[in-house]
Amino acid sequence: MAKEQRVGFIGLGLMGSLMAASLRRAGFELTVWNRTAAKAERWVVEHGGQLARTPAELAASVDVVVSMVVDGAQVDEVLLGNAGVVEGASPGLLCVDCSTIGRTAAQQIGAQLATHGLRLIDAPVTGSTPAAREATLTIMVGGAAADLAEARPVLEAMGRTVVQAGPLGDGQAIKVINNAVAAANAVTVAEALLAATAAGVDLDSLVAVMADGSGASKMLELKATPMRAHDYTPLFRLNHMAKDVALCLATSPSPFRGAELALEDLRAAERAGFAQSDFAALLEAVQQRTGERL
């Protein structure tokens, strides 16, 4: 069944290019579009599939459209803007947005698509580039159960875990909370490494004990080694994490002090020139405010 669905993929950035490649490996007939046409052309040469000149052209030839772009403004542009998906889509087309744009934007875009007879589920992902490469992403979905059932073969080709979060927008709400927790945990890992350095503690021993004890976390697993090496090769860009944490804080009805503190460090790292680096580079801001250095 999965291979019978014609899929359009919009956005071939750090994550999108890997997710689209997973769909090709799974055997989907794929048409792609990217704002930078040269990047899309190179992707098609490497992976196969068809190249669309506009999102509207892409939408005219597919059954499901997946978008993976930066923010709500870009999702609005590719789906609803000039030469956007709505201009080429047949009524009933299902749009699956894997970008992180926040609950409000997802609901607003969904409502506008509905006036054109199109459907939307929000399906943001977590796992960074390693999970995107291995098709083991966790995908949280907001939308109608029937729409998720239709999209499931596509989603399961990109991810290991697909969670129905609730109605449209709830996938977004869970995603930004999750990322806020991840950012706060990453700050804690950075502070722990610096505290141990200041105390003269062996960092290998610290990390080994934490990894096997109550201090264990995914951020310890993923970010301790890059932080110690000051290797900020991007798996998930710092400015994208800052955007997600800010979205969480802007919509949270409850105080979220850990997220607030993490955003302060992320913004400081952005100002210091690390916006395009992996968010492990928040270590640089933590070093600056603590006066310690790894």
Plain-language structure description:
The chain is 56% helix and 14% strand. The strands form two sheets. A six-stranded parallel sheet has the order 3-2-1-4-5-6, sandwiched between helices. The protein starts with 5 loop residues before the first strand and ends with a helix. Helix 4 runs parallel beside helix 6 (103-115), helix 9 (170-199) crosses helix 14 (282-290) and helix 12 runs antiparallel to helix 13. The mean pLDDT is 97. The chain has 294 residues and is an alpha/beta fold. It folds into two domains: 2-168, NAD(P)-binding Rossmann-like Domain (Rossmann fold); 174-290, N-(1-d-carboxylethyl)-l-norvaline Dehydrogenase, domain 2 (Orthogonal Bundle), CATH 1.10.1040.10. The chain has helices spanning 16-25, 37-47, 55-59, 72-80, 85-88, 103-115, 128-134, 145-158, 170-199, 203-211, 218-229, 238-251, 257-274, 282-290, and strands at 6-10, 29-33, 50-51, 64-67, 94-97, 119-122, 125-126, 137-142, 159-166. It is built from 14 helices and nine strands. Strand 2 (29-33), helix 2 and strand 3 (50-51) form a beta-alpha-beta unit.
